[in-house]
Every structure is written in structure tokens, then in C-alpha cells.
């Protein structure tokens, strides 16, 4: 038997999540999570002292992915989520840029150089995400 209350309540949680994942913001968050994971793997092989940035940023990106995909940002109104997301991406872009320049100047091994290059790419992704999510645009 079908539950008529469930059908009339609106879209299911799974439909809401999958609808968000196909938006531009959802794709950007997925890209941020994946590139932070790859950078973490490269840094943990060769230079674990730099891996904390990618771990922290991956955790925060997963938090924002869950927040947006479950529509919690509309239910929790205490925080201004667009500004939080803008500052998260802007600060991450600056930190990845600084870390990548430091790593590439040190001239480490191959995985460190790859992580530095990917950090520059991640910085570009975060800058683009910051420009897309700027609240006053």
C-alpha cells in the first residue's frame, strides 16, 4: 500500500538531495571535496605537515554539501549561510594559494609537486565558487 501522507508532503529527502547535486553549487562542492581528497593523499605520502588544510577544508565542504542538499540552510536562520559560504571559499582559496606556493618553492618530491599543482587548481575552484556565491551579486 502506498502512504498518501508521504506523497502529499512534497518531494522526498532523496529527491531533494539529488536535485541539489545536479546544480552548479552541488557540482562545485563535489569538485572541492574530490580535489581536497586527492591533495590529502598526495600530502600524506610525502609531506604530512601540509595535510591539515585539505582535511579541514574537506570536512567543511562536506558540512556545506549536507547543509544545502538537505535544505537545512532554509530551516536554520540564525546564521547567514551565503556569507559563511563566501568567506569559507574565499579563505580556502587564499590558504590553498599560499600553501601551494610554499610547497612548490621547496622543491620536494613528485607527489609534493603534484599536491602543490593541485592546490593551485583547488585555489582556482575556490575562487570561482566564491565569485558565484558572493551574496551581493
UniProtKB/TrEMBL annotation:
Query: Which InterPro entries does this UniProt record tie to the protein?
Result: Marvel, MARVEL-CKLF_proteins
* GO cellular-component term (any): membrane
According to its record, how does it sit in the membrane? Multi-pass membrane protein
Entry annotated with the keyword Lyase: no
Query: Where are the bilayer-spanning segments?
Result: 27-47, 59-80, 86-105, 117-136
A Pfam family reported for this protein in Swiss-Prot or TrEMBL? MARVEL
- What does this chain do? May play a role in cell differentiation in the intestinal epithelium.
Its recorded name reads Proteolipid protein 2
Organism of this sequence: Rhinolophus ferrumequinum
